Each structure stands twice: as C-alpha cells, then as structure tokens.
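We emphasize that the prediction below concerns an isolated chain of 487 residues; any contacts that depend on oligomerization or on bound cofactors are therefore not represented. The input was used exactly as deposited, without trimming of termini.
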Amino acid sequence: MKFRLNISVLPLLAPIYLFFAFPLPATADQQFAQFISRERESAIGAEEHPKILRQYGGVYDDVRVTGYVATVGGRIAANSDTPGAGFRFTVLDSPIVNAFALPGGYIYVTRGLVALANSEAELASVLAHEIGHVPPRHSAQQYNRAMGMSIGSAVLGALIGNQVVSNLINRGGELYLLNYSRSQEYEADQLGLRFLSRAGYDPYAAADFLRNLEAQDALESTLNPDKNTRPIEFLSTHPQTAKRVQEAIERARATGLPVQAMPRLAEAFFSNIDGMTYGDSAEQGFARGRDFLHPKERFAFTVPPDFRIINTPEAVIAEGPQETKIRFDTVRPRQNLTVDGYLTRVWAKNINLRNLENLNVNGMPGATGETEIQTQQGWAVLRLLVIGFTPERMARIMILSPGRPSAALAQELRRFTYSLRQLSPQEAAALQPQRLKIIRVKPGDSIAGFAAQMPFQTYRDARFRVLNGLPENASLRPGTALKLVVQ
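Result of the prediction step, given as a token string:
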C-alpha cells in the first residue's frame, strides 16, 4: 500500500522511455479509422498513463531493470510492422503478474511478470505480444467500444448505493484497462511471434513463458483456494493459456527453426534482474503472514487467522472466513477534526451509524460505529473505525460482514482493530524487501536445498520450481543459473 493523501497528488517517477519521434504509419486497416484518430490515441495514452502509475504503485525505481526492459522492447519495436511508432516501455513497481498496452504506444510490464521470466527471449515474447496490439489498433477499437460505459468503483457504487462500501469491495488495479477480445489476443500472438523472430529471438520462448504463467496460476490456486480469487491478472485479460501454449508451439514450428536454434540470452537477463525487488516493496509495505508492516509510514497491524492480505497501492485489503472483508487506508483530513468528528461528519456523513463508541488503541484515539447496508449479496454489517495515527493523519478501517459474524470471528475482528501500533525507528529500519538472487548450481545441489533457503513458510519446493520454470521431476545441471528469493 502506497499511501495517497486526499489533499495532494503523489509525485510520479518518470519512466524510462524508448521513443521514436515519428508519426504512426497508416498500416492498420482503414475500417478502424472510424473508431478514433491516432492523435486521440496518443492523447488517451498520455491521460491514462498517470492513472496506471497510481494504480500500480508507480515506476520501479531501478534504472538497470527499467533501462533493460526498454532496450529489449526497442529491439522488438524496431522489428515490428510499426517501427516508427512512439513506444514507451514502463516497468511498474508491483508484484502482480501482468502486462498490457494503452492507446498511443504505452507498454507496461510489472516487475512481478519480469521475475517470472527466465530469459531475455521470454521477456521479449511478452513485449512482442503487447506491441502486436498496435498495428491492428486494438486499443483504439476497445476504447471506443467502452465509451459511455461506467467502469471500476463507480459501477459498484451505483449497484450498492454507497461509495464508501464500493471502495471496500473493489480492489482496484483494472480501472483503466480494457480487455481485448479473444480474436484480438490471438492476432497479437501471431504478430508478436513474427516480431520476436525478426528480432532474432528463439520463437519457442513464447510458449515457455506461457507455461510459466500456467504454473504460477496453478500455484496461486493452491496457495489461495478461494475460487473467486484470480491473482494472475495477465490470465484474466488474456485467452486460455493451454490453448495459447499449443498454438505458440505450432507457430514457432512454422518458422522452420528447431528449438534453441536462436538465442535465449538467459545470462544477460539474469545479470540485469539480480537483486530486483520481489513481492511487496518498502514503499508499499510488507505482508508477512498475518502481519502487515509499513517501514516508511512506521505502523503495523495483524489480521485475524485465516485472512489473506492483499496489498494494493490504494489500500490494504484482507479477505477471510464468512466472506468478511477488511479495508485499511490512511488520510490527512482537510479540517482540524477529532476522530469522532471525522467519522460522523466527513467519512460517514451520509450514513446513519449506530453503536458509536470512542476507543483507545495502543494510546491512539479511535472512534467506531456500524450500520447495515444492502449489497448485491444481501444485507451486510458495515463497521467503520477511525484511529488518530499521528496528529496529521488518521487510519481508516472498514469491516464488511454478510450477516452477523460468529462470536469467534467477532472476537478476532475486535483483536484486529486493537492491533494497530506504531513501529520504532529501529523496527522500521530492520524491515527490508525480499529480492531475487541469481545463483549457480554446483555438484550436489538440489531443488529442496535451494527451496529451503527461501523466506516462505509453505510450498517452498513448488515456489522455487515455478519461479525457475522447472517441472516437478527436474534435475539440476551444474553451472545453470537459477533465481532464489532471499530476505
């Protein structure tokens, strides 16, 4: 969670650009001209770019990684059907696995996706796919179709009649993204593989990376069995992976090249991502088991047992038993108000709260109240809590429970509300992000031995295999470079 106050706009880090200053050539089918002009495409991309940065935690602040991605993207762009387009490549500071494009040549990959690749060719295959949306002007088509439609939390607010609650239910992260049709995605696959081969990369790398995505998705399903959860955003906006893998293999074979005939450039890739942040960043805070700790803002809290923490740039979300949801964020009020004044006169001014109560949370003043609201799933109990975290800043907690929570869950939720505490400077300084470390296999090394070194409590072997694209029965060859997550 990267906190954005309600009276200011966070400064945005400048992305690493690879920009070819020539107008986009008219290579797209003329039937698309009716959708939107190319000038408007560029304007839309420029308008939405800052929103994407806010939604995904900003640009990853490591010029080695961002410059490397821009260089690889530039190589693909130069071998595309639109080499004169003004492409801009941005690495987003997010552990979410995703890649996407906006109108006007804005191409994005998250560092979560970069971490899942195992060679430059695999990374290039993703960039090639996103660039493949440009010649047919898919972004322009989808944007035009979406005009007039409400998206994101505005829709949820209308459906349930309350913007406060819609902020809790909507996790964010996709407000400005437009899903392509299945046919558009397959067209981008075809064009992307063509561009990948032209650029001199192994075309079979595309299928290998899709397998990595498939394995990561299966791992996430094991780690988070909630069937309503889809952690891999890339898969939620792209066609079925198994079919894409097979078609990617067939397209690669159609080039007439044998497997590994063209370079993968794994060594160059590993040298550029060695030390890259993995998982949550210090700017957004760390989810460690049931604890959420923010070294920059110097606070921590503990969610109830069996709750899963979802750290987003907008807020910290926790989902748990009985479909209970928690949302935590902070604000700096415009007015000089007490916590109960902010609760009743600002945050919940249009809500009739009952059972109002003043609290003392580890020496910090708090105020809480609850109400019942109608959601799409029926009636739910909404509890709001405001805590005076510092003289200038207040913490806001929303707890939404369909029906009344059980006595046991209610007790755990109460413990959670009293768990917010401030971190000492020493505690905050000791909190560091996890990072990728590139290692070399030596004789006698094993998957289990490497996996045991990773800072996870569960499924270490599976996490290590998926991170490195290794099948379950894989054997390690001495001298091979692999990725390890270290604290």
